[in-house]
Amino acid sequence: MSRDPDMESVQRVVEELQPGGEAESVWLKMMLTFITKHLHPLLSGSALSGGSVCPDDLCVCVVKKIQKNMAVTHSLPVSYRPLSVSELLSKQHLACVSNLSWSTNQQRAWEKEAELALPGQRALPRVNLLLIGYLSGGGGDLWLKDTSGSVRFECLSPSPLWLNHLIFLRHWNYIPHNSTGQDGTQTEGHVELVGSPILLFPGSEQGLAVGPREGAGLSGVVGVRQAVGLMRKRTHGQRLSVWGTVGSVCPLLVVSGTSFFFFWLTDDSHSLPVLVKDSSRLCWSRCLCVGQSVCVTALRVCVLQCWRGNNILSVTERSQIHSNYTHTKESAHTDTQQDTPPEQMMSHGDGDDDGDDVYEEAGSERVILQSGVRMKRSRVISYQGTVTEVVSEGAGLYVIDRKVGLCLAYQPNLRRKLREGDSVELHHVHFLYRPCPDFPPSMLCTCLRSTLKVTSFSRVGGSSPVSTCPGDGVLPRLLLEKNVGVSEYLWACHLSSQLAHSLLPRVSRQQCVCVLSWKMMEDVWGQGENGRRDIYSEMLDEPHTCPLTQYLVVPAVHQYMSVSELTESLRSESWSSLSLRSLLPPDGSSLKSSEINSKLAWSCRTLTSDPQKNLQSGDGLRQRPLLLVGVLELPSQSSDHSLHLRDRTGAVACVVTETSMVEEEEQTAVFNTAWIGCLVCIKQFTMVTEKSIQSDFPSYQHLDQEKYITHRHCRVYLQFSLDHVYMPSPSVAMVTHLQQKGVESGGRATKRRPTEDEVDGAKKRRRREKGPAHSASTSVPVTTTAVGGSSCPCVSMVITAKDKEGVAWKNLGAGLEDGEAGLTLCFSMRAAVIGPVVSWSQDPKNGPMTDSEADAGREDQVVLVFSGVSARWFPVLQPGSFYRLVAPNTQDQSLLNGCDVSGQSQVQLHTDSTLQIQSDWRFNTLTRPLLLHTSRQALSPTVLSVSDVVDCRSELVCFQALVSDRISLDNRTSDSAHTGVRLTVCDDTGTSLQVYLDFSHTPYPPGLLPGNKLLLSAFQRKTSRSGGVYCKCLPVSSVTVLKLGETSSAQPPPAPMMHLGMWAFSRQQRSIVGQVKGHMVCFLFLQLQWICSLCGSLYRQSCSSSECHSTSSVFDSRARLVIDDGTGEAYVSFSGSLVRTLLGLADSQWEGLQRAVKVRGHVRISPREPSLVCDSEDPLLLYLACLCRSEVACRQLSLTCRRSTNQRAEETKRFSRGERDFVTRKTLPVQLTCLSFH
User: Any bridge partners for residue 368, and if so which?
Assistant: First the structure.
């Protein structure tokens, strides 16, 4: 049936309203058509309509109401057009505002005020639309509907009297919802009513504002105090009418399909809860306002079993609510009980800038648990303010008044999400001070007892939604399930927002970022489930208790940083905080130019992730431990050969160790390829910043002039052990490895077992790898089917690594593009083949070793050659480990057979076959095969100690050593930042050795730091002319970091105690550094002089060299003496500040001596030749001679010394007795250089 109006109805409307022109006549016809089609069917037969209603009468009423609310009442709003609900939802995709009574100036003033209140935001655009509909309730919400559909209706102060009425909205906003719901459906928008609606009904002139005396004629009404007494005497069939002030309105809950809410009625001294679960009265939750005086009728007393069987008042089907109620018998109290908040309302404007201190004092009841961790009690307050930032809509996090945080996660999700610019009023909200350092210090958190009411809708459209985790609504659901504290929840929310921008896309596609953040929170905080949340006690108990009553305060909780943010901050800090003088020894002012530039050539700064351990390193800016999250990957750049930690922002090189499979308590270099591709959370690590400087400083005084720095380079990398790593999302290979590790340990608990969620996630990724085309029928009879691999055919063989060469740049004869040199990064590894080549229908990865892969009698050797891209496997291939080498996308078993080296006829070659590793081949670490004979498992070369290297006679050695010192040997003619390094290494006995590394043709390896334990393979052992032993790297040498030390405070083992008589025989005692205790016999000489800092010539008033024009000088002090320990003598040389310590002079005395020497430039005395001193009348020489013979100088000495490496062990001496000449060989005293005093 057509709903278009007939001509008679149009004529009656025109005659009644008398339009002023053709435009108004057309507009009236449009209005009549709209009302006839969309509104009149809703009122036909309705009791509110008073019987049948004609469309033209309804149209006249509507137009008159519209005219009455216009700014200009003598004309019709022809620029406005009516809009149906379905058209609003389907066509209005932008937020907008409509106000019939606005003039142009009023609109501009409104826009300006809105944009000034929230800088950077744009006011809602105005539309000329008329919205008319029928208001109804359902499910606790209000709905505005017409015949085309319904839209959710939001109002600031709704009244139950508005329900089931036809209303016209004079001033309203429409907010479309562009976000997608949790079920994947597109959520619809809602209408916001500003002010009160206009009731539309023929003949009705009353508004919807309820008078102050509404409900005054009710009888039998009791107050809260009386109702509390009547509840104790429960009578069957009794119905109560109770009046009081609304104390709080709990949120609407849905439990087991039943919707309900509680609200509290209070008087001066008593309060009682009221249960509302009748579906027709659930909309009361929108109508009740805290502080409002109401009367509720027909309440019954019932027992609430969920609340320990307590009595409670419940709304019945006959219950009515009367707002702004005034009790006639207590009129003296009516004025004070109307719309008066029960608590003092706080806002941001109530305090000054020092409000944080006030808040801290207000909620400061706390209990100290342990160092840096406190348990505090929250304070319940009321607050009003304006939302200025939406931190996370799904997680329920906002900022009010730009300073106060708001967390709504402990309440059910709001149907209408808060927007920037909303004014809110909070009652019974918990105030917390510094629950999480990533959020504002002052936080407000709502529980199930709290009341949140929007008092003014936002006037701005809000900022564009930030790209966050699409499932951020998961966090409140996890909170409800796990019931953790608010501090932990806030930390997880902040981590989730950070990871949404930094995780690699492939990780965020496979895993929900919020779930990953929650797992990391449980690992970092060590928090599990806190038990089931009692919602009824939380809403009804007195005194009030809830999860927000107490909260943790942990100022030093971990702080997440992205990889790029960390590396950039380390690089900037390395140069901004660099003090060149701090890189020099305490006596740096006495160093010559060459010595200064040599010591500045390389320096290192190490910081741990825990700032408490960096107090001596000057890291005062960072107050919290750091947390890194990323994926472990093989190096992608051909010039690097260490593992990388990568996220979306960047990558950083890492020196990684893990627990050895042979000795569970020993650390070794990373060998397990299952770590590759794992998402890891690193809580304990060391940040290393190596700085290389090429400079030409003429003297110590010029260090503040950067123009003398010709080149500088900074390198940043990390050091950590995999024992301090948490895997929120292990790879399929890692899950397989952990399961096998549990089986091999005989069922014992391992350090890290995969959880059910991790196993399920790995199974899902495995199914994605298999793809829909995978089936068991794809395997052929001659192949083996692996469980858990990807569905591509492949061949494999099992090997064990014996030894590997170092990575080096080699010319393989293949030139690169653009005319570059044909140098390729490559290395080789010798391995033993365990069994035959096996074909697979799918990748076996690191699955258990099968019987077909092992051959007990096979002893084949193969040399694996890695070059180019395949050289990236270098950091995870370690001698003694077992690997499965997989060649994918082929069934050709001959591909893994090595090629023999061809030779001439009748020539027998004793060499192993070689196998060139292709770029797409993969290595998978296998747990140690138990079926093999024990002797075949010990295939790694013999590893010596430093003492063994010193005493052995082998030319090539492989040994472990602890780095105690490092000196850069840069070549200034090279463009490379590192061309050579001299390491001083030692073992547990203190025996030391010097190792020389040349990086002119090899990449510079990270981790060569004091405190780290290294494995040095295939190094050449050499003996100096004086008999000292040192080691030198060869093109095949390899350096591996086995164990990480405390590099920031690395203290090497003390040098061994040496007897001088034995140390003189270099063949028996080859140690370079040792401790010496003995008595000083005499001074051989003492020399004090001022020399030129540039050329080293003597400096008096100027440099004595005619070719040098330097104007700077340094003080040079040297001494040599004889000490005796009872087994022999030694000549010990001292220099620099050690001479002052030797002479026992104070700083002021030493400075005075320098001034006295500066006059003449040079002083040298030989106390063993007293005639040269006694005959002199120079007071300075006499003073120095007395000083050398004083008891202070001639004392027992305890020194650490280095033996000279260019000393002759013996000397030949001739002498005559009578007519005969004699030749004898005399052992010379050992020549030592003092390093330090004890």
Answer: 374
Report the alpha-carbon distance of residue 38 to residue 57 in Å, rounded: 15
H helix or E strand, kind and range, residue 1174 = helix 1170-1174
First to last CA, the chain: 110
Indicate the DSSP class of residue 326: -
The residue among 960, 1015, 1022 whose CA lies nearest residue 991 is 960
State how far the Cα of 953 lies from the Cα of 940, in Å rounded to an integer. Answer: 20
> pTM here?
0.85
Asked whether the predicted pLDDT for residue 1227 surpasses 80, the reply is no
Place of tokens 């020489």: 1181
DSSP character at residue 1011: T
Residue whose tokens read 């106390």: 1167
Residue 425 tokens, joined: 């009023």
Question: What's the angle, vertex CA 565, arms to CA 1041 and CA 494, rounded to 5?
Answer: 110
Give the tens place of pLDDT for each residue, 372-392: 578 899 999 999 999 999 999
- C-alpha dist (Å) from residue 1071 to 839, 1054, 1125: 55, 13, 18
Q: Tokens for 819?
A: 């005319």
Phi, psi of 798 (to 5 degrees): -100, 130
> How far, CA to CA in Å, does 831 sit from each of 809, 834, 837?
22, 9, 15
Give the residue-averaged pLDDT of 784-801: 72
In this structure, the chain runs to a length of 1238
DSSP, collapsed to helix, strand or coil, labels residue 73 as coil
Instruction: Return left, alpha or beta for 966; rule: phi > 0 is left, psi -120 to 50 is alpha, else beta.
Output: beta
Short-list 792, 1028, 831, 1025, CA closest to 936: 831
Return the H-helix or E-strand segment holding 1073: strand 1073-1092
Calculate the dihedral angle through the C-alpha atoms of 614, 618, 624, 629, rounding to the nearest 10 degrees.
-70
Q: What kind and span of H or E run contains 64?
A: helix 55-68
Tokens of 385: 């303010």
DSSP structural state of residue 38? I
Nearest CA-CA partner of 1193 in 1149, 1132, 1144: 1144
Pick the closest to residue 338 from 249, 181, 250, 212 (CA basis): 212
Longest dimension (CA), the chain: 161
| Contact residues for 570 (Cβ-Cβ < 8 A; gap 6+) | 607, 687, 689, 716
DSSP track, 372-414: TEEEEE-EEEEEEEEEEEEEETTTTEEEETTTEEEE-TTSPPP
In this structure, the number of other CB atoms found within 10 A of the CB of residue 620 comes to: 10
Helix, strand, coil shares of the chain as percentages rounded to 5? 25, 35, 40
Report whether 607 contacts 686 (CB < 8 A): yes
Amino acid letter, 1140: R
What are the distances in angstroms from CA 1085 to CA 231, 1122, 1124, 1176? 107, 10, 17, 16
Question: 931 by DSSP, 3-state: which?
Answer: coil
Backbone angles phi, psi at 32, to 5 degrees: -65, -40
CA dist 938 and 882 (Å) reads 11
Each residue's pLDDT tens digit, 444-475: 999 999 999 999 999 998 765 554 555 567 89
How far is residue 653's CA from residue 689's CA, in Å, rounded to a whole number? 12
Confidence grade of residue 957 (pLDDT, cut at 50, 70, 90): very high
Q: Residue 550's closest CA among 480, 702, 467, 445?
A: 445
Tell me how far apart the alpha carbons of residues 439 and 435 are, in angstroms, rounded to a whole number. Answer: 8
Q: Give kind and range of the element (H or E) at residue 17.
A: helix 7-17
Alpha carbons within 13 angstroms on the beta-carbon side of residue 724 total 18
Quickly count: other Cβ atoms within 10 Å of residue 316's Cβ.
14
Distance from C-alpha of 430 to C-alpha of 549, rounded to nearest angstrom: 8
DSSP conformational letter for 684: S
